[in-house]
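Data availability excerpt. The first of two example chains:
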Amino acid sequence: MLTHLFLLLAMAAGQAVPFTDARWMLLDREARPMPYLGQPSLFIDNGFVLLRDSSFGDGTIEFDIAMHGHTSFAGVVFRAASSDDCELVYLRPFLSRQADAVQYTPVFNGFFGWQLYNGKGYTAAAELPLNRWVHVKLVVAGYSAQLFIDRAQEPQLTVTSLKRPWARGMVGLWGNFGGANFANVVVSPADTGAPASRPADSLPTPQPISAWELSPAFETATTKPDVLPARNPNAAREWTAVTAESSGLVNIAQYRHAARTPSSALSSRDLVFARTVVSSPRSQRMKLVFAYSDEVHLFVNGRLLFEGDSAFARRDPSSLGIASLGPDAVYVDLHPGANEIVLAVSEKFGGWGFAARLEAIGSESESDR
């Protein structure tokens, strides 16, 4: 293993350095070397740049970044199997000092999960100076990461639960909607192996539903989300049992690829049916609290009880479509024995997932107090 891997993005004034050799994957066609603010840099506009032969599990990644202030995003990729499967920490320069100026999100099967992972441990405030070089350092260890901006002594963002399985992978840079300029990238891998286990997260009260089955992925242009999927032996064999994260979240993208084709991407959504069976000792009415991204149809014992759309720019106060348990709930009548709950969850972008919990009527969860 290389203990210090230096990625020098440099070029003489006016002379472009080719990034098409065997070591680099320039997945952003607009990425280009250019002099900026007095030093050589790489401008990333809308995509990824990955170092082919890098192998990074734990360690430190440092770089300088020049942000432009418009609505753009820029960050660092690590443990990447590809641009579709990686860990990502990124900056929102247009939201400097706000609560989500910086964010961590896993990327599974090409789906960014930023609507699913929000708040403490995932987003944080930071001052992001514009139009000058700002030093950024990311320290990764096991399932945790710390982000230091502008040579701060304390991390602005501390991630305690990286969501992808620990694995060595490529390091890279990412930009979107005009991105940023990068320079002086230094990667220092640590000589470590995979942690023995993932640290246990504290369990919320009341506990969410953890056991689910997922259908294959469909698209809403051809499969109606307000109709339960046909129940036949062949379809039943295609369902996959999954376990929710400790928070109750099921990140569907961890298990399913997009079903949409390029031709249907604008007019359709990716769709998965998620089902679980809960046992009730008697007839009773309970409160079913749920979260989803982007759109949901909720069935209980075969009846459609709820339809909602919380996509980006749709309804929540910030219009971001953040998924969280609390805002949405219905009262359900359970009968003695097995009761089936099905959520048809469809997604455009930003995070494909859901969570649910059952509460006795009149109870109040810790998170709602």
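And the second chain:
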Amino acid sequence: MSDFFELCTKRQSCRKFSDKPVEHEKLLSCVGAARLAPSACNSQPWRFIVAESPDAVSGIAKAGCQMGLNSFLENAKAFIVVTEEHAVLLPVIRSMLDSQYFAAGDLGIAVAYLCLEATAQGLGHCQIGVFDREKVCGALNLDPKATRINALIAIGYPVSDEIRPKKRKPLEEIAQFV
């Protein structure tokens, strides 16, 4: 098993964070890894907003506690908000496709790099799907009309180092070799 494959098996969504604060350098490393992700035409259609001040973290945690979900966010020590920015594609590609055609995939790769680096740093993380975008923008003093949030990632140290078994479809069911 390669080191990378082992890292992939360790990556999991953490919903129980300890009280230990996250070092600024580790958050920088996570964003540093994300910025190395490939993107179409090297457009890099992303921005990473790292919330580590208590006020910003508290505001984002409240924005993520929606419909009775995500109460564990109150224990997160930081958040990384990933926004989708305008992608500048090569003119020949832009003439055929919308400028944002590749952005979702590019952002997905960047978030994967970020989360894998968090795992490598010993941090727990959880990508949040349900949250109030306007409240997140309010907590960060962002214009909600001009900000397109692609991902909200809670970060902290996990309470436990236990790696849960992954429930995944068998390889034979998802891959075809011809």
